[in-house]
Amino acid sequence: MISPATTVSTLWGVWLLGWLLSAVSTRKTVAEQSSSARIGHSLFVWVGAGLLFFHPRSLPALMQPLIRETWISWVGVALAATGLGFAGWARIHLGRLWSGRVTLKEDHTIVRTGPYGLVRHPIYTGLLLALVGTVLAQVTVAAIAGLALLAIGFLIKMRQEERLLTGHFGAAYEAYRADVATLIPYVW
Question: How far is Cα of residue 9 from the mean position of the Cα atoms in its chain?
Fold first, then answer.
């Protein structure tokens, strides 16, 4: 029988492969964040991902399961699959305007349809839901700490994106911000 942890790892692997393949066909970048700004959020993301996905054997106390209920792990699998699906939908919907960095692309526009009509940052919404699911599939101190660091990194990066888009689009982006929630539809 396949374990919840193996299932979640497989979901992330398939998602990552699709993500990398789709990154090839994006528009030309016309403006991007500085290297120091990128480091500001990347450190949190990389350390958090290391704790969540690479199970540090040198810190065995952090790897002890806090909850051993199998049904909770399978709920985590469902959340991870739902979150990765939502992030994938947002990535596909954004199309050639997507970038892994905070950038403006050639002929950049404000996308307000599909998942971008529900939340301004649906890729982060989906990834955070998938990360919560991943934590539930393997509830350890390392996984919880990894989730916290990843969330901090995403929040820093979202603020950087908001500043860049507000600076470029001005009132049009401010109107979008007033109409559409940041991460959770109709809430925040």
Answer: 16
